[in-house]
Amino acid sequence: MGEKDPATIKKIVTEIGVELSIKLFDETKEVERGGGMKTADGTRRRTPGGIFITLFKMDPNVTKEQKTRIFGDMRQVDKQKSRSRKRARDFGKKLEDVKKTMEEAAKPADVFDDEEVCEMV
Question: Of 26 and 7, which is predicted with more confidence?
Answer without folding.
Answer: 26
